[in-house]
């Protein structure tokens, strides 16, 4: 954590009620917490203070206070899990990738992300490398070294650095993928990658599958589309029947 981030978090804690401080402190330490864990933490806090406030109200109250400090607890949903992540909304937060890494390292990161996402850009080389489920083999990512104008050994070291810094994570013994924190923090600088029309977050395929409208080519997360299409069969963008 940088000194600036630490000052932001200390400032946020100082202006919150004690019971909210406890939950925010947990977010500061972990950055990302699954919904059921948040519920358990809030239940413990409620028992201590004799309250019955829902976890959603805790987060709403915390956000209403810390938004003035450019901080927010945002939700992130996958096909089967619901997370909450503490995000710094300052403009320089989303530019950390480009300020903490050189141009070649940043290029490698973006090329790696493209392996996670089937972006239908008719790039035959990319199409052959796209992996299922928003992840890719470590060896495939390392082999992007030439396109990033770095050596294979440097690519391997850079990918490890991205893992240590919390942008990438191991997914099994040979695969890597984006961390949940990266999906939220990097949204502003990954605008060239496909985003869900409904939640506006980067679309990571689930088992290689992503919902796409054949009429206008917008994309939806499977979990977003499942909720949306309970009310209509039409595309949220072009309003034609979603195909």
Through-space gap between termini: 45 Å
Given the C-alpha coordinates, what overall shape results? globular
How many whole angstroms does the radius of gyration measure? 20 Å
Structural class: alpha+beta
Oligomer: single chain
Please tell me the CATH architecture of the largest domain by its name: Orthogonal Bundle
* CATH structural class of the largest domain: Mainly Alpha
The CATH topology of the largest domain, please? Arc Repressor Mutant, subunit A
Low-confidence stretches: 118-133
Number of helices: 12
Average predicted confidence as pLDDT: 77
How many domains, in number, for the residues? 3
In terms of DSSP E residues, the strand content is 5-15%
The CATH superfamily of the largest domain bears the name Winged helix-like DNA-binding domain superfamily/Winged helix DNA-binding domain
Order of helices and strands: HHEHHEEHHHHEHHEEHEEH
**Portion of residues within helices:** 40-55%
| Strands side by side in the biggest sheet | 1-3-2
**Extended strand count:** 8
Q: Mind describing the biggest β-sheet?
A: 3 strands, antiparallel
EC number: 2.3.2.27
GO molecular function: ubiquitin protein ligase activity; zinc ion binding
Keywords: DNA damage, DNA recombination, DNA repair, Metal-binding, Nucleus, Transferase, Ubl conjugation pathway, Zinc, Zinc-finger
Catalytic activity: S-ubiquitinyl-[E2 ubiquitin-conjugating enzyme]-L-cysteine + [acceptor protein]-L-lysine = [E2 ubiquitin-conjugating enzyme]-L-cysteine + N(6)-ubiquitinyl-[acceptor protein]-L-lysine
